[in-house]
Design goal:
single chain, 537 residues, alpha/beta, Rossmann fold, UDP-N-acetylmuramoyl-L-alanine:D-glutamate ligase, seven-stranded parallel sheet, 18 strands, binds ligand NAX, binds potassium ion, nucleotide-binding, isomerase, CARKD, Bifunctional NAD(P)H-hydrate repair enzyme
């Protein structure tokens, strides 16, 4: 599984490599700069043949050091290179200073200080269609908002370069923007832009076309605003070993969800060998969500799936199902009666359930100690008494809130994400989901474009909805109900709560991608066979 790193983990990996004598910091910086140049030429082959222009903005730390390497290497390739430094050359860290000196033998360094309008104003004639701007101001060392950009700073001008031609004040041709490691201003751990509070007016951000990071992606590339700031993200290997020990314990690590194993069915196994899922439906006129969840549970391979509905809803359901089964569960007592059947291996409650019914049915469902997905109304029903719910939850439960439901159960954690990110590392969706899982004592899957999954012991994973894992079509009514059903079906088949949540999140995205544009929730279960076939299930 691909690890997504924090700034501290990246530093620990680098330090371990340097102290072991395997490589020097200077060599790593050289490889980082070379990696950026390679990625630029690979992304824009048209720049390979000519003599383009580079404007390299260097900052006061090692990110700036990478910038000086890039400047030197592009100069060696025949590019016209212009270098700017924000900071005092005498205070550069040693490796950055060395590369500053090396560049100084080749060309000048123009100082930038935030001295008001015009402090960083390059003549329009300086710019050409083949100009590439390198943002080597701040990388993983950013700890506070970048004041230098306020109102009159570079960012305003950078963003102007990026406006459509007819909207630009001057006659600047479009400039390609490359972020070194991270677009400056972005928090490496949370993907949030560090900003003073209240935010300064009229500040534009650096939005990159290409971000070249080193060794592995950082959480900030995929969380929150990260994807919209980074553009294409390329990972340049800089010869570092994985060094898992430097990453810390499992409570500090975050992996990306990957294709699940174990979805095939043995030739000799009968249907009960694959578990029996029970999905609890809402009342008359509100059964669609549960039917979607149930069909997803069946498609993902649960041997049997039963819908439990109040009497008044049974006719409605019966007319719309075939392979699914139907039982009556009018009340909590009736549900408890159904759950006396030990062959029921997993439950799903919430989609379309109704708040009153949820308050009645969730306690006996949790009492039964089966793999249990709680979603939608099963979460909202406890808005006024989250502790009551937490007291009943057990390790085989998965809560699948969207941001709104999450805020109802964990208002203080949701508030942490809303507070302005004034210093780094800022609170991230991973942090709050981990804390929520610890508090609830079960797995929490926080839905969103970046879906985060955490277990009470801190183990975490995420599906970054970017690049090959983007599935914008999932923003459609009922898609969340299908996810609940997938996780329930997988638990019915014997997956642990955490593994079921990860596999469910992966399959959900994969099914959406297999169907593509025009997707509605009903299509998701129907796209699963194709996905499962590709997995060799
Ligand atoms: N050996 C290494 O450590 C390597 C580091 N690499 C590069 O080094 C970067 C990390 O370097 P650093 O840790 O020096 O950090 P940065 O270069 O990201 O920035 C840190 C510097 O900026 C200052 N600073 C932080 N926030 C500021 C703000 N808002 N306004 C003004 N100054 C601010 C800090 O006090 C520090 O001087 C990585 O992102 C990567 O680009 C790569 O060269 C690979 C090797
Ligand atoms: K940068």
């Amino acid at each position: 599984m691909a690890e997504l790193l924090t700034a501290a983990q990246m530093r620990a990996i680098e330090e371990a490599a340097i102290t072991s004598g395997e490589v020097s910091g200077l060599e790593l910086m050289e490889r980082a700069g070379a990696g950026v140049v390679d990625a630029v030429l690979e992304t824009w082959p048209d720049l390979g043949g000519g003599a383009p222009k580079a404007v390299v903005l260097c900052g006061p730390g090692n990110n700036g050091g990478d910038g000086f390497v890039i400047a030197r290497r592009l100069h060696e390739r025949g590019w016209t290179v212009e270098v700017w430094l924000y900071g005092d050359p005498a205070r550069l860290p040693p490796d950055a200073r060395t590369n500053y000196e090396r560049w100084r033998e080749l060309g000048p360094v123009r100082p930038y200080r935030d001295e008001g309008p015009g402090a960083f104003w390059l003549e329009p004639s300086d710019y050409r269609e083949d100009t590439v701007l390198f943002d080597a101001l701040f990388g993983t060392g950013l700890t506070r908002p970048v004041e230098a950009f306020n109102a009159v700073g570079w960012a305003t001008q950078l963003s102007e370069w990026r406006l459509p031609e007819e909207m630009r004040r001057g006659a600047y041709p479009a400039v390609r923007v490359v972020a070194v490691d991270l677009p400056s201003g972005l928090c490496a751990d949370s993907g949030r832009r560090l900003q003073s509070d209240p935010p300064p007016g009229d500040v534009e951000e650096i939005v990159a076309d290409l971000t070249v990071t080193f060794h592995a992606r950082k959480l900030g590339h995929v969380l929150a605003e990260g994807p919209s700031f980074c553009g294409r993200v390329v990972v340049a290997p800089i010869g570092l070993e994985p060094r898992r020990r430097a990453l810390g314990g499992r409570e500090q690590r975050v992996t990306e969800v990957t294709a699940p194993a174990g979805l095939d069915k043995a030739a000799s196994a009968h249907k009960y060998a694959h578990g029996h899922a029970l999905v609890v439906s809402g009342g008359f006129g509100r059964t669609g969500a549960a039917r979607l969840a149930a069909r997803a549970a069946l498609r993902v391979g649960a041997g049997l799936v039963t819908l439990a509905a109040p009497g008044a809803a049974q006719m409605e359901i019966a007319g719309q199902i075939t392979a699914l089964m139907l039982r009556r569960a009018e009340s909590g007592d009736e549900l408890a009666g159904l759950l006396e059947d030990p062959r029921l291996t997993a439950l799903c409650l919430g989609p379309g359930l109704g708040l009153e019914r949820a308050r009645d049915l969730v306690p006996p469902a949790l009492e039964a100690s089966r793999g249990t997905v709680l979603d939608a109304d099963a979460l909202t029903a406890f808005e006024d008494a989250p502790e009551e719910l937490f007291g009943m939850l057990h390790e085989a439960c998965v809560l699948t809130p969207h941001a709104g439901e999450f805020a109802r159960l964990f208002p203080d954690l949701a508030e942490r994400l809303k507070q302005p990110a004034v210093s780094g590392p800022a609170a991230s969706r991973v942090d709050v989901t981990r804390e929520a899982a610890r508090r609830a004592g079960c797995v929490v899957l926080l839905k969103g474009p970046d879906t985060v999954i955490a277990a009470p012991d801190g183990q975490s994973a995420l599906n970054a909805g970017v690049g090959p894992r983007a599935a914008p079509w999932l923003a459609t009514a009922g898609a969340g109900d299908v996810l609940g059903g997938l996780v329930c079906g997988l638990m019915a088949r014997g997956f642990t709560a955490f593994d079921a949540a990860c596999a469910g999140a992966w399959l959900h995205v994969e099914a959406a991608r297999a169907f593509g544009p025009g997707l509605i929730a009903e299509d998701l279960p129907e796209a699963l066979p194709q996905v499962l076939r590709q997995l060799g299930a």
